[in-house]
Amino acid sequence: MGNADAMDETASLGAKSRSASGRGSIYFVAIVAVITIALIPAVANSFWLRVLTSSAIYSLAAIGVALLFARLGLVSLAQVALVGVGGWVTLRLYFWLGLPFEINVLLGGAITGLIGLIVGLPAVRMRGLYLALVTLMFAAGFQILVTAVQFPNGAAGFMGFSFVTGEFMPRPVIATSDAAFFRYTAIVTILGFLLVELHRRTRPGRAWALIRKSEACAMAAGVNVALYKTWAFTLAGFLAGIAGGLLAGSLGVLDARTFPVQESVFLFALVIVGGVYGWAGVVLSGLLFRGAPALLNSWGIDGDIAFAIFGVALLHAIIAAPTGLAGQSQQMLAMMIKKLRSS
Amino acid sequence: MGIFFVSGLAVGSIYALSGVGLVLLYRATGVLNLAYGAIGAAGAMVAWQLVEWEYPAPLAWCAAILLAIVISFCQGRFVAPYLDFREPVIKAVATLGVMLIVLGIVNWIWVENPRRFDLPTDTIGTRLLGVRVTVTRGLVLVLALVSTAGIALYLNKTRMGLLMRSLANNRNIASMIGVPVLKVELVAWIFSGFLSGLTGLMFADLVSMNPNVLAFLVIPAIAADIVGRLESLWLTLIGGMGIGIIEAMTTLIKPVAPFRTAVPFVVAAIVILWLQRKQRLTFADDD
User: Fold this and answer.
1) How many CA atoms lie within 13 A of B46 on its CB side?
2) A39 Cβ under 8 Å from any chain B Cβ
3) Residues A21-56 pLDDT 10s
4) pTM tops 0.80, yes or no
């Protein structure tokens, strides 16, 4: 009983923050996107470009986590592991077939979507804590698997890994420089966000909303609960897979140490801190995930203290601010605008 | 062969011991504490530091366990009550916040460095099944058995145990008939803190003295809990030991040996799939 109330409260707060940001939000996104893509490559040096590129990549992955949590209340603690799956598949396909970058990444995304579907399949029969634990077990298992087999780097055999050789996967032809690859990543991330937004505004979005309110009602209304739940997992897996492909493209190689289970857990925590209900939240969580540690390092502050601060922020977000930093700043902005108008 | 069995039994015993502490807390409070490993790690680091400063070792162990109890108590008193009426999964996610805080502070104080932590019981040993068994390994086995039995007795025979079981059954009704919820929960948090401090020390000795590794050893412990369906102490004990032994024995099977540390997760996944085989999700309640 109490649970349902808390959930409703969270959902309605989300709705409020959405209406606060208004219908113009999509135009606002477009303006911010254009500024980001045009301005950042001009002002950032190559170090910050690389940091922001990986922030954008993890924002893309964060969209999947936010989608599952905001629309269905499902906790996925395996997203970074799925990014690793996407990276592995993309590298494997490149060294096997030598396909163009885009096709490679899309195929990698599709296959990761299937893996995401399998991870999320237990969601048909369970939810809540047990489902979160299933994803946690997957992430922990993936870490061990990938540490043992490593990522393909052009060697022979299905695993395609060797310590001696070490080929790189080239970046896409149209985006070989750091600046161009940043723009490329930003555009793909925006496309990923639009894909989810499209889902939210059409049939799947309505089905998810009904499932979130009550699975029994959704069933009674003829919604195929199992289909739409697993569809959300597949979509989240697809986005993680694309992110993995981009990460592989950005660096040319991947290292198993990038994908420990901790990272999946941290990404989830930061998505909650950033805010799950809109584009600003996932952008923030990507920046917190990759940008904040780099920023603190450049200021000479120990990055570990950032974790303690993230911990406090996570508790604050869960207890008092279900819309996260993004929702809070939007509410503040709306209040300021109201005051300015009335004065 | 014997050596793998013995070392597996020892590590499995600590999985079980951690798992029992987690289950006890989960049953009484509904919180699956993901910060459990980090709390144990904080205790172990303090013990290591005190030994470095040449304080007597027993004092260092007591300090470690005391710190773990204090952190766990504070979590139960100042964090958990805010989440009383939320879903179990939200409570578990919130404990990630505590984990980040504890781990961040520990890593900030002690820069990551290779360290060793030894218990004096490592040097005393006996031969069993043709293998040298240190007292530490024997000790964890005994500790796991004794604490499982002790907690089971406590839950079944004392009044506080009865109150804990009533909370596990239904929190709303229990609080309505006058169970002092906060007090009972705090007792569970203290017990769980004690066990996390203890397992932190044991893991530090037997596995690794790295707080980041120690903090995430909570995941195989959760695997043991899953075997016990997050409710049975004895099944958790069997699960933990079984996982430890299978994990160690897998070293002998060459093709899968590199993947042996994945055993806890594979076992947990199989158990989850088995448990939910006949379940149909329709009308939601607590889960």
Assistant:
1) 23
2) no
3) 445 566 777 787 787 777 777 777 888 888 999 999
4) yes
Q: Are B64 and B126 in contact, with CB atoms under 8 Å apart?
A: no
Q: Distance (Å, rounded) from C-alpha B104 to C-alpha A230?
A: 35
Comparing CB atoms, the residue among B89, B264, B273 nearest residue A132 is B89
Contacts of A122 in chain B (CB under 8 A): 272-273, 276
Tokens representing B24 are: 């006890």
Query: Hey, what are B119's tokens?
Result: 């218990």
Q: What tens digit of pLDDT does each residue of A191-240 get?
A: 999 999 899 989 999 999 998 888 888 888 888 888 999 999 999 999 99
A339 burial (CB, 10 Å; 0-12 / 13-18 / 19+) is exposed
Helix axes A324-342, A2-21, angle to 10 degrees: 50
Across the interface, do B172 and A144 touch by the CB < 8 Å criterion? no
Taking the C-alpha atoms of residue A129 and residue B88, their distance in angstroms, rounded to an integer, is 6
Give the Cα separation of B156 and A75 in Å (integer): 34
Residues 110-139 on A with a CB inside 8 Å of B are: 122, 124-134, 136-138
Give the containing element (helix H, strand E) for B134. Answer: strand B131-134
